[in-house]
Write a structure and sequence with these properties.
The complex is a heterodimer of chains A (362) and B (279). Chain A is an alpha+beta fold. Chain A contains seven helices and 15 strands. A six-stranded mixed beta sheet of chain B has the order 1-2-3-4-7-6, sandwiched between helices. Classes of the chains: A alpha+beta (362), B alpha/beta (279).
């Protein structure tokens, strides 16, 4: 049978609570009461401790008639504490909302023990701001098809706490280069060029703090990389009460699997950093570079992302917005007709201007 | 009687030799001791110089020697050569001589004023000749062409003098022609540059602009750097070890075009004028 999920309810009126990004507090949808996350966490501590069991697999339920065995294995069923409806969720779902009563719900068991994130960056921008940012994002892009922005309707918008691994580590770099310095002096009709050759060696350690890599296979890596950076100074210890009103999945890519992505980034930046200490040469050829990544702590964090999707000409366009900074990313279509038009307009316009300046005025 | 007539005719011929102006022999007009030109070229130059000299009744000579040891300046040496070889036409030895000394790559154009040459080869005229032959030929090692140009120019300058319009700053058809050609070349180059700019810059600018606008629609990228997450850098070893040095020497051919020989030195006296310098 369906198992425990938590539905944060207003202590005053019993209405559903959701995290309000503007006030950074939990707000009641009905009476508008505001509560700090600490107050609600304290209130629900006991309830959460009881809600230890994960949602039941669907194998014994009649629902299996509609799901294959493999699918059912990865699904979980919960009952909504508000309306009693059965919620069918992915096995990784950590926070969602009831499709019948709309109340935000959290699955406490997804945060037990090692599954509990170390940190969370609370949402700072709400849904309306995300929609507004998207229309602003369309601006200043002359090659965007006009019909895309005018006939475009957001099909889906959801605030998601995306699981991220944050890697602490260091990179030991050994760099060897061949450098040249060139001086020239003129004596009479002769130019004497002297080239000095040097062997340059650098050894150093570059330390990194919380290099992010998203830990959800559902989230496109390219989008998650593109919405960086997050401001870690606003990162706080994880509390479940930040989740109501948003979607959240627990990680489904392990920190070991994700580490290679962070390692590549650390390696590249470590080489650049150490290379910057080599200066004063007119020519530089790298002879060898060795980088050894020394892993340190790995942090598990939930970072806020608004995911927006639109459909145009039968194709889905997905955009992601950093829920903290508002940075919006997502590839937009290009109007080929406009490309040709702009090319011709600029070419002919410049030709006319240059003709007037060079052949008539000069 | 026949014998008496023969003796008289020989005596008359000897007398004529003293009375008539001394003219250089056919192969005396051009003497190249340094073999800058082939003997066939020397013959041709000699013939050209002889024809021009005869036509204008003023000698045109070219001399090439190794150096001017024993003299302070090439001008003094030029005068000595001219006098000792008894060059020139007419009683006042009218003529012009180009002399080169290869040891220091010096030259001097010496005009002996004997009637025509003071007008035909003024300071200005000699500098124009020097400018042409030195900058266009001698500096590039084109000695035969340079000598031929010298003879041709002297021929022409003497011709203008005979027409009553010697070459001078106020009358110089060569300079005017050169200036016209330079102006025409400059205009052609300017027109070509303008056309190239008008046809080339706009499509290139448009392409770069369109690519820039296109990139605004593409904001997704996989992160390859983590420079924003660097906590600190410690350098354990930093060595820059000198290995060796090498040198290359490039000889630069200086632009000696001074717009008509302004870098040459000219001087005149009552008996002649010099224009000298290096090539």
């Amino acid at each position: 049978m369906p198992d425990q999920i938590t539905n944060y309810q207003c202590p005053s009126c019993g209405g559903p609570l959701h995290f309000d990004s503007e006030t950074q507090k939990l707000k009641c949808d009905y009476c508008g009461s505001l509560f700090t996350t600490e107050e609600i966490e304290e209130l629900y501590r006991e309830k959460n401790e009881e809600a230890v069991s994960v949602g039941t697999e669907l194998q014994d339920s009649h629902d299996t008639l509609q799901w294959t065995e493999e699918e059912a294995k990865h699904m979980r069923a919960y009952s909504c504490p508000s309306c009693g409806a059965q919620l069918i969720c992915d096995e990784n779902t950590a926070a969602t909302s009831c499709p019948y009563c709309g109340n935000p719900t959290v699955v406490p068991a997804q945060f037990d023990g090692a599954l509990r994130p170390d940190y969370v960056i609370p949402f700072k921008l709400n849904k309306d701001q995300a929609v507004k940012k998207l229309s602003q994002y369309y601006g200043g892009k002359p090659l965007l098809p006009s019909a895309f922005s005018s006939n475009n309707h957001i099909e889906e918008i959801k605030g998601v706490y995306v699981p991220f691994w944050l890697y602490d580590g260091a990179a030991d770099v050994h760099l060897r280069c061949h450098g040249t310095r060139v001086h020239s002096v003129t004596r009479g009709d002769d130019i004497i060029t002297t080239t000095e050759h040097y062997q340059i060696e650098r050894e150093g350690t570059v330390e990194f703090n919380k290099v992010p890599a998203d830990a959800s296979s559902k989230m496109p890596d390219i989008l998650m990389d593109s919405i960086e950076p997050f401001n870690y100074s606003e990162m706080v210890p994880f509390q479940m009460s930040y989740l109501p009103g948003y979607l959240a999945d627990k990680y489904d890519v392990s920190s070991e699997e994700d580490a290679s992505r962070a390692d590549v980034r650390m390696k590249n930046s470590a080489i650049s950093e150490i290379s910057r200490t080599v200066g004063g040469y007119s020519g530089l050829v790298t002879e060898s570079q060795q980088v050894n990544i020394i892993p340190n702590r790995v942090h598990y964090a939930f970072l806020p992302v608004w995911m927006l999707s639109t459909r145009w000409n039968g194709k889905n366009y997905i955009f992601a917005m950093n829920g903290q900074t508002g940075k919006m990313v997502g590839d937009l279509p290009i109007d080929k007709g406009k490309v040709i038009l702009y090319f011709l307009l600029i070419t002919l316009g410049l030709m006319a201007v240059l003709f007037v300046i060079l052949f008539i005025l000069m | 009687m026949k014998r008496i007539l023969k003796i008289m005719s020989v005596l008359a011929a000897v007398a004529l030799m003293f009375i008539l102006p001394v003219k250089a022999a056919y192969n005396d007009y051009v003497i190249d001791t340094q073999n800058l030109t082939y003997s066939s070229e020397q013959d041709e130059l000699n013939m050209l110089a002889a024809e021009a000299s005869e036509q204008h009744d003023a000698g045109i000579y070219i001399r090439v020697y190794y150096d001017y040891t024993g003299f302070d300046t090439i001008e003094e040496y030029a005068e000595y050569v001219y006098e000792s070889e008894d060059l020139g036409y007419g009683p006042n030895k009218d003529g012009i001589m180009l002399i080169l000394t290869m040891a220091d790559r010096s030259f001097d154009i010496y005009a002996k004023y004997g009637g025509k040459c003071e007008e035909a080869f003024s300071d200005y005229a000699r500098e124009q000749i020097a400018g042409t032959i030195v900058n266009d030929y001698l500096s590039d090692g084109e000695f035969y062409d340079g000598f031929k140009a010298f003879i041709d120019l002297c021929d022409s300058y003497l011709g203008y003098q005979e027409q009553g319009t010697p070459i001078s700053p106020s009358f110089d058809p060569y300079r005017e022609e050169q200036e016209r050609q330079e102006q025409e070349a400059a205009e052609n180059a300017s027109r070509a540059a303008k056309t190239g700019a008008t046809l080339g810059i706009p499509p290139l600018t448009a392409l770069l602009t369109v690519l820039g606008l296109r990139s605004r629609n593409k904001t997704e990228h996989i992160a390859t750097e983590a420079s924003g997450y660097i906590k600190g850098t410690k350098l354990h070893r930093q060595t820059d070890r000198f290995l060796y040095r090498n040198q290359t020497v490039t000889h630069v051919q200086r632009d000696r075009d001074s717009g008509g020989g302004g870098s040459f030195h000219s001087s005149s006296s009552g008996s002649g004028g010099h224009t000298s310098g290096h090539f």
